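WARN no homologs supplied; continuing
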Amino acid sequence: MGRLDGKVALVTGAARGTGAKIARLFAAEGARVALGDVRDELCAEVAREIGAAALALRLDVTAPDDWKRAIEATLARFGRLDVLVNNAAVLHMASIADTTAEDFLRVVGVNQLGTFLGIQAAIAPLRDAGGGSIVNVASVDALRGQNGIVAYASSKWAVRGITRVAALEPYMPPGVSVEAVIPRMQPHLSYQKNRTIDELMSDVAYAVLYLASDESRSCTGSDLVCEGGNTAGRLVRGGPGAA
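OK structure emitted
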């Protein structure tokens, strides 16, 4: 038996990268998966690769009407919704002085507003399903500061805050967990320098799988950190205990 047998999931940002990895893994573990993205052709290609258990949807996560259509299409095709993965994100790299208001709001729109709208849209179908999981993909940059990513970092800190608030909302249906995954996708800055980007994306997909499965029923309102030890502390090269 697969770890998600009988479940239906909606994954955003699923046309490539980590989102596509999550969608493929979910299907391999028995889920039926709706893949949402603005990259229509790439999204449809991943869905075709998965097969009958997949549905490709055009989904601009900043647009409430797109969320309404995506949920309706998922329910029409698969009959229920058990898991929402808010994975869609954009990155803008610039100093605070060089970040325009338009740059900032574009990142916040996808990363922060998109997560909020997804949770809002999923509440009713998750209630109808009798419970489920919402997994928000944040970033190691939501645990610390880093220059040059003011819009991205602040939006991912917000994702962690949204996760906690949503988990505590009395309006959230019983049996629905809300969690954040904290990845790091730059192996050269990790203590795991031998890992490839593809391997790191797979690690994140498995972390999301755990939170989407019934194995994590006691978890809600917290972070699952999956970032190669970047925030564990400082490694002193050549010091006591060093390799």
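The two ends are 41 Å apart (CA to CA).
OK
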